[in-house]
């Protein structure tokens, strides 16, 4: 039987594996079918991780994490876990995509969340080359330049305000007249001279060249269009939480989740189900930053170690 199963190979999962194995836990297995490192491996430039002063791409940044996490005995199973369930004896059964099952005493879920794509033309082509879903990650690259923000919720408006402190101008593009964002947040944006509201409009196309994005074309309800010259486009149209792993055969969660589908945890990363922990972007109120995910993973590992000791 596996002592500790970690589902997901991003920063949270790797940090959890490192802390658990270095802490003396034997037979720790990380389940990840793809390349280890998580979403951050797709980033072209990283410069805001504390202690890492060299500008580097996401893949280069995560490579030492992978090597270090495996140093103390962490094992990887190259498969995707489809479902986790708790047995009557307190252990967990993990079902993978091929139908194979694994038994584990404790489980840390680090499956994360995926920014929802807006679906406009050019989004996939220029993602990472001018199209972004992370203002704190990529905003600095557009210092004193004009950029566009797409969305009408709290995140979109809050990030537009955040970006306005870095860039020269923000075009806030929303398909409706009204916003879902909190009134106080919206009022701050309206009073910000750097933010121009482009309403009743949707992105028709993001276009550019070999260097990246050069502009966007928006289409209004009356079918008229407008060209906006910007090198950067930030989309905030929601998240697709990867929480299927904690849902049973009837699509019901085995632990507490929020309305948006994120896993509820306490400060120890404990879920409502004993022996089940969550870390990183999958957990409620996650900041969606690598440094935070790593801290979550370490915390979850330490909590899992205490849980395993209690079983003895």
UniProtKB/TrEMBL annotation:
Q: Which Gene3D superfamilies match?
A: FAD/NAD(P)-binding domain
Record text on cofactor binding: Binds 1 FAD per subunit.
Q: Which GO terms describe its biological process?
A: removal of superoxide radicals
Give the GO cellular component terms, alphabetically.
cytoplasm
The Swiss-Prot or TrEMBL record lists the needed cofactor(s) as:
FAD
Q: What is its EC number?
A: 1.8.1.9
Catalyses which reaction? [thioredoxin]-dithiol + NADP(+) = [thioredoxin]-disulfide + NADPH + H(+)
Subunit structure, interactors included: Homodimer.
Q: Which family does it belong to?
A: Belongs to the class-II pyridine nucleotide-disulfide oxidoreductase family.
Q: Protein name, please?
A: Thioredoxin reductase
Q: Which organism is it from?
A: Campylobacter blaseri
Task: Give the taxonomic lineage as stored in the record.
Answer: Bacteria, Pseudomonadati, Campylobacterota, Epsilonproteobacteria, Campylobacterales
Write the gene name.
trxB
């Amino acid at each position: 039987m596996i002592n500790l199963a970690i589902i997901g190979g991003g920063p949270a999962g790797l940090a959890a594996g490192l802390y658990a194995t270095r802490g003396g836990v034997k037979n720790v297995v990380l389940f990840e079918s793809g390349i280890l490192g998580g979403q951050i491996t797709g980033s072209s430039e990283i410069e805001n991780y504390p202690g890492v002063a060299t500008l580097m791409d996401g893949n280069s940044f995560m490579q030492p994490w992978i090597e270090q996490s495996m140093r103390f005995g962490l094992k990887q199973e190259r498969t995707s876990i489809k479902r986790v369930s708790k047995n009557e004896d307190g252990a967990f059964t993990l079902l993978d995509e091929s139908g194979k099952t694994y038994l584990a005493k404790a489980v840390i879920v680090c499956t994360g969340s995926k920014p929802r794509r807006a679906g406009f033309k050019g989004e996939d082509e220029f993602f990472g080359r001018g199209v972004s879903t992370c203002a704190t990650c990529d905003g600095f690259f557009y210092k004193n330049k004009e950029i566009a923000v797409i969305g009408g919720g709290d995140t979109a408006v809050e990030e537009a305000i955040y970006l306005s402190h870095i860039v020269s101008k923000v075009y806030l593009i929303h398909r409706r007249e009204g916003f879902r964002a909190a009134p106080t947040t919206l009022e701050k944006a309206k009073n910000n001279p750097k933010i121009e509201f482009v309403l009743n409009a949707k992105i028709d196309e993001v276009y550019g060249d070999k260097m990246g994005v050069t502009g966007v074309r928006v289409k209004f309800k009356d079918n008229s269009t407008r060209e906006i010259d910007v090198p950067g486009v930030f989309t905030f149209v929601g998240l697709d939480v990867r929480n299927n792993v904690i849902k049973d055969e009837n699509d019901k969660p085995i632990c507490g989740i929020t309305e948006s589908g994120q896993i509820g945890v306490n400060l120890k990363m404990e879920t409502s189900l004993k022996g089940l922990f969550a870390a990183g972007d999958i957990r409620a109120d996650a900041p969606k930053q690598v440094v935070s995910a790593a801290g979550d993973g370490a915390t979850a590992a330490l909590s899992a170690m205490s849980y395993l000791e209690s079983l003895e």
